[in-house]
Amino acid sequence: MIPQSFIQDLLNRVDIVDVVGRYVQLKKGGANYMGLCPFHNEKSPSFTVSPTKQFYHCFGCGAHGTAIGFLIEYSGLGFVEAVKDLAQGVGMTVPDNDDRLPPAQRAEQQAKSLALSEALTRACDYYRRELRQAERAKQYLIGRGLTGEIAARYGLGYAPDGWDGLKSVFPDYEDGALVESGLVIDRAEEDDARHKRYDRFRDRIMFPIRNTKGQVIGFGGRVLDKGEPKYLNSPETPLFQKGSELYGLFEARQAIREAGYVLVTEGYMDVVALAQLGFPQAVATLGTACTTIHVQKLLRQTDQVVFSFDGDGAGRRAARRALEASLPYAGDNKTIKFLFLPSEHDPDSFVREYGSEAFAQQVQDAMPLSQFLLKEAVGDNDLHTPEGRARAQFDAKPMLQALPASALRLQIVRGLAQVTGSTPAEIEGLFELAQPVAQGRKAPPRARRAAPMGLERQIMRLLVAHPVLAAEFDEPAQAAVMRLASEHADMFVQLLTICREMGVNANFAVLAESLREISSDFDPLIAEIAADTESDAEVVRLELLGAIRQARLQAIKGELEQIAGGVADEAAKNRIRELMMQQDQLRRQAQAETGRRD
């Protein structure tokens, strides 16, 4: 787990304007920066970035967050990945309990990664230049229906038909980074080899593979004519693992948000061809089976994933592997479907023959995960016999065990029970499903408590917006607000404690990131502050002091009423006099403050 102190230090060093500005065109507008929201379609800018709050907010769709939150939402990175990305940009190293490498060795690894990245970028630029003058390659792409605009968007290039074309851009052709990045093959140990070192990709259309940050990490190369292999991929390298990356995801992110789903296809050409035909939300696995990491990445971008496979045997096997990879992440708020096109068609040919509307309808009518799972379980088993029904249950067991406990799993269990002549409770018991839904007694849902109101809300709102004001709370002030907050006293104490721990360097962005991990109770306050205009620190401080005085006055009034209803002994009389003096002092302070403002 990354220490909170590191997150605070990181957000204090990072400028959110620079982070967001790498992806969104921002213009200065008053105290803030404005731009078109990257999270929804809009023609006039409603997306603001506050350098003071170090926070972004969209008045159109309500999206808001810190620099970390922006990278998570925009790039689909996980929390740790986003933190590491930001840290790298400001020269910080994320503490990692599992990382036992000495600093010198870690620095060596980072330098090697940088060398590989630079080599791949230079090669990508070279391939793109070569495509401009390669008529045969251009005619091939034109024949596939691609325009120059699509080729440029995906950075397509051409590797010339020569053994060492990369020598023209890498004067040191013996550089080890060329081999380690997968650009060059070295066979120096083979004495009889005609070419001891040569380009891996020759006479191929080049598809650069980018990570979620847009960096080139590998290539896929397609032959122009007949030849084997039809597609040639970069080998596994420190930058490129096929089971973790998806072709076209970087280019498709905005289109995925707009369409509301991502379409997973089987090849590079499917992706670019679909983008040309009006489906830019397509991505592809990299010549390997779909993995759980792929599914995780996809579900960070959207709640709906549609896998598109050929209807032949190979397509069915690929779909089964995608199903198995998806099961741990299938839930009530996620939709995963499987589209099987006729065996004579891939997505590209289907759209060209039947049109975009027909393909969109195919996507809409794709088979839901629940139906595909049951179909796979039933298979060729004869459900008219006990053996066939038992076999169907046997085949379904590992898939159901992989599903998280949810309403979706319950629906699938009910479907399986129906076709195999069992009850849902029997299926859950027989399969030893974790957290049984059908047979388990569930505790009643905990009612979400009402949000803070009135004066208590005002105080907490000011403290969230300006956490350094925690220094204004002495013991009487804290006790008064806790009494005022009543039901939300724990929420207030939690907030005050975090603010104090952050100290004098506390700010809204750092606090918001901390509160996000603790409780969703603070979300409405954070969203409201994110949308609010900038405020003068001294004015806010005086507003808070006034609110604290009101809280203390209310606490004093409550205690006086409580004493008045009891025994009027000497101790009670002394306490009344003490409270009256405090009350008078607070009122004079308020009058003096009003006089200074006037």
From TrEMBL:
Source species: Oxalicibacterium flavum
Catalytic activity entry: ssDNA + n NTP = ssDNA/pppN(pN)n-1 hybrid + (n-1) diphosphate
Function: RNA polymerase that catalyzes the synthesis of short RNA molecules used as primers for DNA polymerase during DNA replication.
Keywords: DNA replication, DNA-binding, DNA-directed RNA polymerase, Magnesium, Metal-binding, Nucleotidyltransferase, Primosome, Transcription, Transferase, Zinc, Zinc-finger
Cofactor (UniProt): Zn(2+)
Name the UniProt record assigns to this protein: DNA primase
ZnF region ranges: CHC2-type: 37-61
Family per record: Belongs to the DnaG primase family.
